[in-house]
Amino acid sequence: MHSRAFLASLCVAFTLAASLSTNDFGNFEPPDIVERDIAIIGGGSAGTYSSISLKDKGKSIIVIEKKNRIGGHTETYIDPATGTPIDMGVVIFHNLTIVRDYFARFDVPLITSGSDVDPNAVSVTGTYDLRTSKEVNITSPSQTNVGAAFAKYAEFLAKYPRLNDGMFLPDPVPEDLLMPFGDFAKKYGIEDAVATMFNYNPGLGDILTVPMIENQRVWGQSLVQQLAGGFLTTKHHNNSELYSKAQAELLAAESLLLQSHVICSERSDGGVKLIVQTPAGRKLIKAKKLLITIPPRLDFLAPFNLSAHERSIFGKLIDAGYYTSILNNTGLPDDLSITNYRSDTAYNLPQLPGVYGIGSTPVPGLKLAYYGTPRSNSTYPLSDQQVKSEIVNAIKTLQKANPETFSAEEPQFVEYSSHTPFYLQARPGDTKAGFYREMYALQGERNTFWTGATWRAQDSSDIWRYTEEEVLPGLVKEL
Ligand SMILES: Cc1cc2nc3c(=O)[nH]c(=O)nc-3n(C[C@H](O)[C@H](O)[C@H](O)COP(=O)(O)OP(=O)(O)OC[C@H]3O[C@@H](n4cnc5c(N)ncnc54)[C@H](O)[C@@H]3O)c2cc1C
Ligand SMILES: *[C@@H]1O[C@H](CO)[C@@H](O)[C@H](O)[C@H]1NC(C)=O
Ligand SMILES: *[C@@H]1O[C@H](CO)[C@@H](O)[C@H](O)[C@H]1NC(C)=O
Ligand SMILES: *[C@@H]1O[C@H](CO)[C@@H](O)[C@H](O)[C@H]1NC(C)=O
Ligand SMILES: *[C@@H]1O[C@H](CO)[C@@H](O)[C@H](O)[C@H]1NC(C)=O
Ligand SMILES: *[C@@H]1O[C@H](CO)[C@@H](O)[C@H](O)[C@H]1NC(C)=O
Ligand SMILES: *[C@@H]1O[C@H](CO)[C@@H](O)[C@H](O)[C@H]1NC(C)=O
């Protein structure tokens, strides 16, 4: 009784702090009350997929997205001069029926990634140590050896088929799944796959110390299988096309609130009530079910009145920092991409925090730069200003150290995006103690369901599969 009264007044206090118009759950007029089967928090990869799938199943929904667009980590820069799109966030998808059907529903054509590259177009990858800006000579394993390493790795994964569907770990959790990935690679003789895994799974933090199970989230059976047939990307190299079409459809169906966020909520066995701040004032949303797709960090979940049990679970998650940007006037040749390597580390891996690499784009003069930090307990303490100056420093040092190849120019950001906190994950001790089993047991409690990268992987195709096969059936059954 006491705690209920306390928390209810907390909600009103929250509301008062944000504006002077007092609101509590009983204080809304009918035009400001929205009733739906499901309220979905976040309109990124997981939230958008969920909304469309539930809509197609005949359910009424409302998506609450804090930004003025949906799409989340899928970001496409459109060069104003030429109209050329550059996917600076999510690029590739798995060639699976669920993926092809989803894109086909919005009439967005897919191709095999790389299949439209002009074979005569010259593009070069340089390997530099971006601390010193000296070129580093790398001896990469042959394609045959890389293939053989992935085949061995696939054999290991085949022992745990449920890992292809989510973090469904055997109990007790085998030590092989908990050991640092660097040790795992040695134990199973798959060293020749490490560099490829690192390059395709940035934002993970340090691949050699991360528990095997966390690298495996992205590098699971499904992604490994794609190595044979090729990844998919959109034909127009404009992955935001799917999201702008979905956004138009959701807005037309009054199923999306942009630039909106939940102020407070009541989640009980009877259903869910949310007070939502929207550009058109406060709304009360009444839903039978809540589907939370945002990163489940305690600070982000504050408006959802977490129970002590929920807090103790999500409070254990750690994350890594991941940043992307597009720059102009870098002084680097248009056809050159640069990978950050070291001559003195295992697998020549770069030191984090640091620049992963600088990629070329189809727009002359524009470069993509990717930056990452190691995993840390409370989000790596690095401001956007620091990340930007580190990127610019790396480029200017490259210019100075290689005056014959790069010209001295003043790099400028034309776009910058922080994807932090990224790759939320458990520490190995917590995983061993049953962290993921407890986290998944929250599905459906207090009419709340969960999906998104933390529940599956930093991989859209896997998120869509997990959402469709593991989350939505249980949710829909209870409606
Ligand atoms: C640079 C980069 C490249 C990537 N490349 C690939 C790739 O090639 N292929 C691939 O499959 N995956 C890739 N990923 C992984 C990508 O993160 C996942 O594919 C997927 O986007 C994760 O989906 P999500 O729904 O969990 O999170 P997001 O897509 O980030 O969606 C979360 C959404 O919630 C919103 N939100 C956050 N807080 C709130 C709040 N309080 N209230 C309301 N809304 C809120 C956000 O604005 C966002 O729209 C990449 C990621 C990055 C950063
Ligand atoms: C994807 O897989 C399907 C079925 O195996 C195949 O027909 C198709 O050519 C592949 N590639 C693309 C771009 O769809
Ligand atoms: C890299 O290797 C090439 C060819 O073997 C050699 O000419 C060059 O000097 C080497 N560069 C460095 C930095 O070791
Ligand atoms: C890319 O997609 C966006 C969003 O749908 C759209 O506005 C833009 O016109 C597209 N551009 C190209 C070149 O495909
Ligand atoms: C907050 O959650 C607790 C359970 O942890 C519940 O008893 C209380 O009623 C909730 N308050 C609101 C406003 O939903
Ligand atoms: C890049 O810089 C050049 C030269 O300074 C300028 O003409 C061009 O408009 C810039 N492009 C963008 C996208 O900012
Ligand atoms: C986080 O905290 C734990 C214990 O509090 C510590 O052992 C660990 O090294 C820290 N860092 C990471 C990245 O987990």
TrEMBL record:
Cleavable signal peptide: 1-17
Keywords annotated in UniProt: Signal
SUPFAM superfamilies, alphabetized: FAD/NAD(P)-binding domain (SSF51905)
InterPro entries: FAD/NAD-bd_sf (IPR036188)
Keyword Lipid metabolism appears in the UniProt entry: no
Coiled coil location: none
Family annotation (Pfam families): NAD_binding_8
Matching Gene3D superfamilies: 1.10.405.20, 3.30.70.1990, FAD/NAD(P)-binding domain (3.50.50.60)
Recorded superkingdom: Eukaryota
Protein name: Amine oxidase, flavin-containing superfamily
